[in-house]
Fold this protein.
Amino acid sequence: MASVPTIALNNGVEIPQLGFGVFQIPPADTVKATTTALEVGYRHIDTAQMYGNEREVGIAVRESGIDRDEIFVTSKLNNNRLERDEILRSFDQSLGDLGLDQLDLFLIHWPLPGVSDFVARWKVMEEIYADGRVRAIGVSNFQPHHLSTLFAATEVRPAVNQIEVHPYLTQDDVRAFDAEHQIVTEAWAPIAKGKVADDAVIQGIAKQVGKTPAQVTLRWHVQRGDVVFPKSVTRSRVEENFDIFDFELDESAMAAISGLNRDERTGPNPDEFNYVPG
Ligand SMILES: NC(=O)c1ccc[n+]([C@@H]2O[C@H](COP(=O)([O-])OP(=O)(O)OC[C@H]3O[C@@H](n4cnc5c(N)ncnc54)[C@H](OP(=O)(O)O)[C@@H]3O)[C@@H](O)[C@H]2O)c1
């Protein structure tokens, strides 16, 4: 099986282009699922404080026997950590729960425009970065206007912007803005929560290239240059989603998949989402 390519972030840190997402994997299932992913060959895990499974991700990483510097671990600041002290404390807690000395990437999970000043939160992220306990910092669910506000008021450019992207939400504007500012786009819900499996256009392409609809869709993301981390608790799918580096989609297949865009989100609109957990 071919190896996973990496992409250089704007500070030179290399991120594997394919990872494993653990959103909605209950803590009781997370050690097993993450261990499976590491056995299959994934070396990049995407978790978050909000997912409640950092501790279990940490157990799987530490018990895998794989060198720490071979595994890229991302976490995200929860929406209820708004003040400087809470942010610093929660970062310490993430490191403690994961059982790591250093995180690879830490993101602001949502901009929360109606709740809090994301610029102030970003300045605390910059402090954490300056400390050396995280190799890169970034944002998630930021629209171009949020990023412009950030650029005008802060020093460090986000290394990544993690946003919802899949064939029904191609996000051409946000991705172009990210690229123009040397920000890597990470695509969440890359297979539209599994919906691509039932898509006739993607099924047709899959048949032509001898792959599955999920594989074709993940390959489309990779060829567009984004980072992806499909989630699955099913071993056969964890294997399937990893096996995407031995074929290529031609221009017409790429265009046909992009043509499925209908600006349809599976999740909230970042301009309207102000959820703060209690
Ligand atoms: N930053 C954010 O706000 C944000 C929001 C959402 C997600 N994320 C990140 O992005 C990751 C991925 O997104 P996601 O989990 O929402 O959605 P996703 O990866 O697009 O889809 C996951 C769903 O697809 C199914 N699936 C997996 N592989 C499949 C395959 N080969 N064929 C058919 N179905 C398949 C899974 O089922 P089984 O598990 O039952 O196999 C699960 O129901 C998350 O885990 C998280 O790390 C970030």
Q: What stands out?
A: Residues 21-23, 46, 109, 140-141, 162, 188-194, 197, 214, 229-234, 237, 240-241, 267 surround NAP (CB under 6 Å).
